[in-house]
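Cross-posted from the bioinformatics board.
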Amino acid sequence: MSGGDRLVVGVDIGNSTTEACLAVLAADGDVRWLGTALTRTTGVKGTPASTEGALTAVRRALADGGRRAEELDVVLLNEATPVISGLAMETITETVITESTMIGHDPATPGGVGLGVGVTVSVADLGEHPGDEPAVVVVPRGWDFDDVAAALNAAVARGVPVVAAVLAGDDAVLVSNRLTQQMPVVDEVSAVEKVPLGMRAAVEVAGPGRTIRTLSNTYGIATVFDLDPDQTRQVSPVARALTGNRSAVVVRTPAGDVTDRRIPVGVLELRGAGRTVTVDVDAGAEAIMAALARVQPLEDAHGEPGTHVGGMLAAVRDTMADTLGGADPGDIAIRDVLAVDTFVPAEVRGGLAGEIALENAVGLAAMVRTSRSRMQAVADRVAESLTTATEIGGVEGEMAALGALTTPGVQAPVVVVDLGGGSTDAALLTADGTSTAVHVAGAGELVTKLIDAELALEDREVAELVKRWPLAKVESFFHVRHEDGTVQFFDEPLPAHVFARVVVLTAEGPVPIGTRHGLDHVRRVRREAKRRVFVVNTLRALRQVAPGGELRRLDFVVLLGGSALDFEIPDQIADALAGHGVVCGTGNVLGDQGPRNAVATGLVAAFAGGAG
Amino acid sequence: MTSLEIPQRTLTLTETGPARRGTRPDEVVIAVSPAFGGTFTQTIVGVPHAEVLRQLMAGIEEQGVGVRIVRVWATADLAAISHAAARLSGSGISVGLLSRGTTMIHQKDLARLSNLELFPQSPLLDADVFRAIGSNAAQYAKGESPQPVPTRNDQMARPRWQAKAALLHLKEFECIRDGAGPVELEATIERVAG
Amino acid sequence: MTAVQPRNATGSRQSLRTEVLEERPVNLDGFVEEWPEKGLVAMESDFDPQPSVRVEDGRVVEMDGRERADFDFMDSFIADHALDVATTEASVALPSGQIARMLSDPGVSRSDVLAVTRGLTPAKVLDVVKLMNVVEIMQAMQKMRARRTPANQAHSTSARDNPLQVAVDAAEGALRGFAELETTLGVVRYAPLVAIALQVGGQVGRGGVLTQCALEEATELDLGMRGITAYAETISIYGTESVFVDGDDTPWSKTFLASAYASRGIKMRFTSGTGSEVQMGNAEGRSMLYLEIRCILMAKGAGVQGLQNGSISCIGVPGAVPGGIRAVAAENLVASMMDLECASGNDQSFSHSAMRRTARMLPQLLPGTDFVCSGYSAVPNQDNMFAGSNFDTDDYDDWNTIQRDLQVDGGLRHVREPEILAVRTKAARALQALFAQLDLPAITDAEVEAATYANSSNDYPFRDVLADLTGAQAVMDRGITGLDLVRGLEAAGFHDVAENLLSVLRQRVSGDLLQTSAILTADFVPLSAINDANDYAGPGTGYRLEGERWEQLKQLRHVTSATNPETEVR
């Protein structure tokens, strides 16, 4: 190495990965990039435990660049902004059926077609049923389909007007195929024993590919049961609940009802801009975000103690306090909140057949930040281990922007948007070198949570796969239909466990998703979750750093971070920004690192600039 | 589980000629082994073959799919039986059955030794499971994505059933007719009076 | 739950005693009548061949009533590679009764017996052992076992494939005395992490323990060659040509695989057992024991040092026929009388009856074998991914008590709780540190805490399966070897564990573990048929449970102190 050259490594300790960038700085300020490395962050970012990962990254970068540790002159660490985020999901509505007034689970294979109105009678009592009253026969579990059909046929032969049947088992087609006289049959009513007997009831089944017409219409129900206007008003929610079904049962009971109840889930208290605003979480995302806008910049937020929101915000505060090595949780402030409206499929209370209703829910991400950092402790340990001078090089956002400038075609002023796991961060670097950084709550983890909840997967790992990879339907052992409709053929048969399934196409091959939903539905949920988090947050963050809050005054926007590698998020953001005349794309640090390594590269660049 | 007793039913399987390849895309072919419903009348745990077939067919019928039954004479190997049936099936989907109850859902494009769903623990298969297997096979035939029927497991099945399974397997082997092609069957299931 | 048929279908009145007996666990086991024509018979069949042998020009031209032209490939392999051509005609000519007496007579040395048995044909071997009752078989086993010191082997697996559970239960198992540890997987892709965990846990529990991971053959060999595992066992062989062919294998392909292990100094043994052929419907009309003897001779001919047998996963078949467990005892003896290491079964769920479970293992425990169980479950059976063993962790205290009652060494000992907790914590910490060193998915402190006190996989926090599987793939992709494990353990400050593992790896250079019945002591001294040869020659000779080892085995969980009867011995 010629005299005056210095070997420098920049290290960025992130939430999940630690990255390093190795370069030689010539005396004239010229920078020669030698190598990079990426490893898993050990412990919580910025705590002493993260030293180990930093050292690993340094060693790997040295190996990548063909250098030895003894040659190192300076190690540069990022001033990590300790940002910690928390997530919560609160269901805020609940559908309740009282007095078993309706059955609307929409079984896959009902039997017969048409509408039957009569009085509910147990199949066991059908023998004694008077011949003049139309019967809606209720069949409990344990009855064989042959026996049910025989009992119904016998009653019909006796002259009993049997107009419909409601079955516990999955037998509707089997029974229908054995009837001498056709009638609508609804099956898979798991709690059929709760159907009130001796009540007027209507059963409707539509043909394949069609939906019911009478019981999904308020006036249809009014006609069937001869209701007065007050009663009609009362059954309106029943009709709404049955809309779109192929089959349904409505039982007329004295006080039967379907209600859509709001669940109080606590109050959120937002403090900032010299005032405090409270908002009920069950008012929904829009109300929460409106309240947040009124107190910008947010100074702190509290949830009502004893509620889930209160618990979630307290947990975020406690984690941060631990990270900072015993700070008082009371001193830690929540600096941003993102609320997202969502739907969660939930079993209806009072349902007889496991009916599922899409309940409203609010997803909340909260974020804490503090200026205190223990990065010096990490720097001391790194210096000791490598016996090399170690400096804390600069704040993350500014460094990221400097690193992003190595992307071909980019120049200051530039805004970098780091699409992370817990928070979305933006930093503006102006032409004269001044920088502004903001952090907003909500990123990749919230997207995963929304996908998990809305598809009722109850499996974070599967939700993560859905987020990361495109979908396809396996139509045969030799071809799949991709989510864009194109077909791909294979020479080797696909594995048996993916046959006929909706799959995610991962790098290791197709992985089936355990869901009843079709591909289109899964895709819609995935894209909406990404839009509601990343597009919304990118716009929120950009407005905070843009001069005068006007997006059109921005020139270059560079997307960085793990989610910038996503196959659709960058496009969604670029589409949203297109109307504002902004150049937006995924970064390509050093021309070959993609959206990775920006901070580590920026650290070296800043050091070179300062030294030069 | 059903609380009512299963009524006695008889199963008569009548050969109607060589098995042919189906053309209807909405059919599932059930293939039974050489001794099924003949030398043997029940599974290893005593589920009557009449009930096994009735529930499989019911599961298929409930999905609105047609069914044909064939017997494979030339082998008692479940994969071979099931795969032969899949190739006869208009939908490419089959259900293969051994006399002791072991069952498999197969598809014509799969390798013979592969399968869509396999139920190897014959002592754990009851009427409800056979119904669910029929239902899933029919859903595959319709191009739907059924959740696989949960397979059960019992470590203590070995001491109780392993030897009997071997014995039944040997007996089934005795009924093999080398070189005989698969035949079409007509199943008559009748309730025993009284 | 196993579906149970009503046994009394007639509805006639039953005695109260019959009701009690019907409820006994033994009546949940299945029993069948023999069917010798089809091979559903333990060892006494009119359909087995009669012994014969003829040698011409140094070549066996007739064996057990079959001319060379009619040999199947098992016959050819045995005739060409297993039989000692020089002695076979003379040995087969000896009366079977005389050979049987040589086996059970302490006055005849082990090597004198071997001089005869290495020339015996399969039918002759069967003819000899058919003359022996269970006590004579045990008496013979006591002498014919290759290694003087008996030992035991354990399964350490996890229903959730949790590497941490495998590591800590391996550590506890090693501490309790198992000389070998074996694992396998539910989700096969987990294998690299679980194999690493088994190795690390084993070396924490007791330096020198040998580990293996049962997988399909290619991956198992790969892990062995990398030094992540120390030996291999699940290389299955069968007694008829048709079963071999069904598995796309031949005696030669299995032998080639065996030589691949030997080329790297890796210990390995084959696996076989009575009942597998009839279970698959291809017994060719021979008794279970006759076919198993063919397997044993095939193993001998392949040149492997040992065999795992004792019916293994088909135990329900011999267990259901008359004399079946005698046949199982005999097959273990035949392995030993062919001078092979014998890992003697007792490794699969065998009976609902605790009494039957115990009786089944006495013919191995009492005389001692090279490994009394070739898979005692060192995890609760619910976590046993080999489908359950005849004994599991619940039986530890019973096993220790039986050893103490009968003064026999079954390879285990009672260990006090603090020591167990200490090695469990240490194994968990070592694995945690190694995973961090190797950039594998993190193990949290909460998991370490749970692992220390856990019984089954249910007691552990859930792991991120996806991250684990990615990590497992990375182990394979990055070419991680046993030396990387040593390096990682050393860097993480687990110097003694690193040293233990390195010492085990060094054995493959010396090749000492290729000797028959080799295990490693805590001082890393290989103990094999070479330097620890069985020298039993009657009362007062051979391995005796005495001295320091006997003092160890006198310890139980609760023993009232003679010094102060108000306390228990600590």
